[in-house]
Design brief:
CATH architecture of the largest domain: 3-Layer(aba) Sandwich
Strand order of the largest sheet: 3-2-1-4-5-6-7
Shape: globular
Number of strands: 9
Distance between the termini: 35 Å
CATH topology of the largest domain: Rossmann fold
Number of helices: 6
Bound molecules: glycinamide ribonucleotide
Largest sheet: 7 strands, mixed
CATH class of the largest domain: Alpha Beta
Structural class: alpha/beta
Amino acid sequence: MARLRVGVLISGRGSNLQALIDAARDPGYPAEIAVVVSNRADAPGLGRAAAAGIPHHAIEETRRAAFAEAADRVLRAAGVELVALAGFMRILDLGFVEAWRDRMVNIHPSLLPAFPGLHPQRQALAAGVKFSGCTVHFVRAVVDSGPIVAQAAVPVADDDDEERLAARILAAEHRLYPLAVRLFAERRLRIAGERVLVDGAAAPPAAMLNPSDNRA
Ligand code: GAR
């Protein structure tokens, strides 16, 4: 069966992009990375795409609508069926969000709706929560909002600083994003209002629920 064609938007390091690239190396994985777009030419993630032989583009357009138009053109030319935001740190044009509605996901390093926006790990430490984690969600107009596909929880240790917590969450992200994209590619996700129902799963995969699996 043809694999789902995924377009990944990045702004920086690209470790989540790498996790998706690595997952797609398995021929049994139901998705492939068709193209990578960065809003910064110096994003290290572009090198990861290059190393994997994946077409990649830097679109250094600061005007929101013009960026969206250029990105949309690249994604459609590559036959993209799902857009995955992976550390993409720009606000997207509303028309673009609508055009890709229910076909665009994002990963965020907190258990949304807690701690949207910038520095979610710092926000989690300041709030004193005992667990944080990461969320993959469908993208809606409001930043870091939208129906939640999957989440992974990690414990917050008493001696955590922002860097240690971010590293523990990132390790969970690298497992969660390939899983969420797999569920989309297998057409197992059904959006019902604010909820995403996963067909064929009596319960979410156990790895997503067991925090001890997510210790970095
Ligand atoms: C990741 O932690 C991702 O969840 C976060 O940026 C980091 C990118 O790392 N995204 C957001 O905060 C979006 N609101 P990466 O470039 O190594 O994947």
